[in-house]
Amino acid sequence: MYFRFPLLSEVILCLGALEGNFRQYRLLVQQHNLVHAPAHHLRLRQAILLSAAILLALTTSPRISMPPPHRSPASISPSMTNPVNSARLRHEVVREADEEGIRGYETELQKTKAKASADLQQNVYQNRTQFIKISKEAEKLKAEMRSLRNVFEELKSNTTALRSATNNNDASMNGEFSTGLSKRDKRSSVADRSALWNSQMQALYKNVEGSQKFLPNSMGRHVVQNAGAWIELDNATYKPRRSMHVFLLNDHLLIASRKKRKVDTPNDVRGPMTKLVADRCWPLLDIEVIDMAGTNESSSGRNKLADAVMVRGVGQESFIYRTEKPEDPMKPNLMLNIRKAVEELRKGLQSEMEANNKAKETINYFASRDPGLLQKTELLETLSDIKDMLIEVDGKQQNLRWVEGQMDELDIDIALQRFDLAVDRVENLKNLARGLKKNIIAQDFINFKVEERSAKLAGLIVRELIDTHSEQTKTKRNVGWLSRLGYEDRAREAYLEARGNLIQKRSRQCIFQGDLHAYIWQLSFVYFSIIRNTVSCFQSCFPQPMMSACVKWAKEEVDAFNVILARQLSSVEKDGEAWQMCIERAKLHAQMLEEVHLDFKDFVGKNVSHLKPVRANGPVGLGLAQ
Asked: How does it assemble (predicted)?
């Protein structure tokens, strides 16, 4: 595949044509004094400059060529730099080469061929990409020219509509002057205007069947113009298809079809013979209404479409409607009212966006820094009101941005695991929030952010507590931090769970090697020594009211030991010498609990004979059949 790039002369001719078109366009703008022309003027100028840059880049870009392969000069270079000469190749390269050299030369040729093919494919891909860019720019320029044509059409229709509106106002000036004051008085009140709009919508629902399905009643919706009878034309032949009725609302365009009413009896004259049925409805911001007067070049087509408009909806779906009467002033009035309605809608959306942006500035600031704030709907709704709120901190007035700065410092301390500084900051911020009793909004805001970071900090400290539960000094420090954060229960549960896991781990390391007495001695020593150390550390690290939880944990571990003891003694005779010796050794180790003021000696071996030797959650003695 080969692509020919434009020559410099072709580029110059193309640029000259573009510049000539641009000069003609600027001359037309100056002659007609267009309002919307400057924007199109700038966009067209930019398109011309961009096209010029692309064409110049393509002109100066290198042609598709085969890059020289990087091979040894003795083997491949002679054959690649010049046209292939088989005789010369045979005499100069292959003549004195052995079989291994010929194979190596063949391998190098294959590699060179593959590399040349890859380079060619890459060049083709680059050229294709450049042509795609040029096509896109051409489409963009085409769209700009289409927009320019629409501007000319709008200028023409606006001039016609203004001329028609001026004539109508002059004709009806005397008739409406006497009632103008009463209408202004009637619409001076918002309630009266809402009542009028509501009555208009009710009349529309009554007269147009199915209209409420397309246009449910909403605040501010009203009828702007009843455009009267129209005819729908075929898009291809411009032949009439059916009779329609057009209603323009402040935010929608409703098209209703006229159908014959079913008459029960021949003498039934209760209403008109036709009825209106809603057929199509579009939001004004989703459609484009085009005047078809100047779109057809032939005289016959121009006569057919002189009073027609095209409604282009979503998905390039278009419909053509024509007024029933030729040169009906209803068409220019409809076009003018549509433009006014669209302009009002855009102004309303813009003002609404500006109002929302002021509130969203604060919301986005806080929400981007703390995504969890999005779940607090009530607090999020009040963020726009507290942007400039001031709070008193150590006798100074600070805004909520200062609070965000403190949160940043807290996040840094948590990330660097400076737990002492982080806990101090959490306490200070909580005290600050408690002092804001009269400012509920700021209090909720600070509490939410502090609680979120406090939970994260507590999780890190709990993890360190589990890792260092065997060191009493670190355990006491970690428990103190968690108590200051308000997570005493979580610290207690994590510590006791870690100690229970340690008992299971150490007991599984006790291996039964045939001596039951030694195995029971090891197992009981592990259980009661760890229970004693746990209770001792718990008494020094946790507050006294929590001691009952530790005693309950110790009792559960003793019960777990009794289950294992019953399982191991199930193979020996009850009250025998071996049985008595194992029980005595277990009770001997249970006396270690007296050092921490716990007397569980009577619980050790209690009702061992009544316990079923089944597998429990605790550790299982190794080496015995179950």
From this structure: Component of the exocyst complex.
Residues with Cβ < 8 Å from 402, sequence gap 6 or more?
393
Question: What's the pTM?
Answer: 0.43
Dump strand ranges (E) for 65-216.
208-209
- For the cut 50, the answer to whether the pLDDT of residue 70 exceeds it is no
Residue of higher predicted confidence among 8 and 24: 24
Q: Which residues pair with 274 in a beta bridge?
A: 260
Least Cα distance to 537 among 550, 556, 528 occurs for 550
Q: Report the alpha-carbon distance of residue 310 to residue 243 in Å, rounded.
A: 16
C-beta separation of 462 from 491 below 8 A = yes
Dihedral sign from CA coordinates of 534, 537, 541, 546: positive
Token couple for 577 = 């010498």
- DSSP line for 204-257: HHHHEETHHHHS---TT--EEEEEEEEEEE-TTT--EEEEEEEEEESSEEEEEE
Q: How many CB atoms lie within 10 A of CB 132?
A: 10
Token pair in block for residue 264: 């029960």
Report which DSSP code applies to 90: I
Quick one: fold of 190-263+271-353?
A: PH-domain like (2.30.29)
What CATH number does domain 502-603 carry, 1.10.287.610, 1.10.1740.10, 1.20.58.1220, 2.60.40.1120? 1.20.58.1220
What the block records as the tokens of 260 is 């014959």
> Which tokens sit at 119?
């380079």
The helix (H) or strand (E) run that includes residue 488 is helix 488-508
Q: Is the pLDDT of residue 254 over 90?
A: yes
Percent of the chain with pLDDT over 90: 24
Query: Which tokens go with 199?
Result: 């009555």
CATH of domain 375-467: 1.20.58
201, HSE (Cβ side, Cα atoms, 13 Å): 21
Apex CA 541: angle with CA 538 and CA 542, to 5°?
75
Residue with tokens 């294992």: 564
Please report the sign of the dihedral spanned by the C-alpha atoms of residue 503, residue 508, residue 510, residue 514. Answer: positive
End-to-end CA distance of the chain: 81
> What span, in angstroms and rounded, lies between the C-alpha atoms of 551 and 44?
86
Give me the residue spans of the domains in the chain: 8-80+99-166, 190-263+271-353, 375-467, 502-603
188 alpha-carbon distance from chain centroid: 44
**What's the pLDDT tens digit per position in 555-594?**
999 989 888 888 888 877 777 888 888 888 888 888 888 8
Is 171 strand, coil or helix? helix
**Helix, strand, or coil (residue 296):** coil
Contact in structure between 313 and 307 (CB atoms under 8 Å)? no
Tokens representing 131?
């042509």
Cα angle: 317, vertex 323, 329; to 5 degrees: 120
Which pLDDT tens digit goes with each residue over 337-376?
A: 999 999 999 988 888 887 666 656 655 566 556 666 666 6
Q: Which residue has the tokens 């593959």?
A: 114
Q: What is the CA radius of gyration of the chain?
A: 45
Q: Residue 449 corresponds to which amino acid?
A: K
